[in-house]
Amino acid sequence: MNIYWKGTVPSGSFTSAGNWVQSSVPGISDIAELTTGATVTVSTGAPVTVLGVNLALGALLINTDFTATEGTAIGSNKGTIEVNNGAQFSVGGAVKNVNTINVNSGKLAVDDFDLTVNGGGLIGLGGSGATLVVSAGRTLVNFDNTIAPEIFREGGLHQCPFRVSKRTMVWLVRDELAQSATSLTFIPRTNNASDTVATIALAVLRLH
Fold it and tell me: For residue 191, is pLDDT > 60?
């Protein structure tokens, strides 16, 4: 079901039923329709799971673990999604990221579902402790988003920034698999302030 945020609520909690037109908090089978420009905060202590999120404008502030199993579903992210306070944003399916996803403190995780990203937007890993994690058996395909700053395989032997071709990225992942990795964690590059933006075009990260 598509569940819509009320146009009369400029900001509020994602998990407050009264903030939604249908007086029901979106759940595992629902698409959260954030189309009014509101600032919506996910801050409950328990993890939240939805089928998808369509953010037409405004902001979604993820301060506790949040899962969108089908990403933006048939919608898109035209606003700003912020991951804060060490929370994990687990996402699968397709994400049409036209604007910005910022991981300020926490994880952007490809763990239970494969993920494809398009839309020409920005994925920012700019905060302290911000990571991108691809779990074993999962695939991340990024067609045209910019990931900034450059990202490195955390703890890997080859500290090559992922700013090159699909072939190089797949080779590097395979090299890590030789070390029996169960997941890959990527961290922002911080040692070269003059070289902090990388576009990963048609990049594929795959673990088997």
Answer: no
Q: Is the pTM of this model over 0.85?
A: no
- Residue 73 DSSP SS3: coil
Closest by Cα among 37, 86, 94 to 68: 94
Write down the residue that tokens 């902001």 correspond to.
Answer: 59
Q: Are 67 and 39 in contact (CB under 8 A)?
A: no
The Cα–Cα gap between 124 and 113 comes to 21
Query: What is the distance between the terminal CA atoms of the chain, rounded to a whole angstrom?
Result: 34
Tokens of 169: 């990225």
Contact indicator for 7, 36 with CB cutoff of 8 Å: yes
Domain ranges of the chain: 2-206
* Among 86, 77, 202, 182, residue whose Cα is nearest residue 138: 182
The CB-side HSE value for 107 (13 A sphere, CA atoms) comes to: 15
pLDDT, tens digit, for every residue of 133-151? Answer: 877 777 777 788 877 765 5
Q: Which amino acid is at 169?
A: M
CA 123 – CA 111 distance, rounded (Å): 17
Please count the other Cβ atoms lying within 10 Å of the Cβ belonging to residue 117. Answer: 25
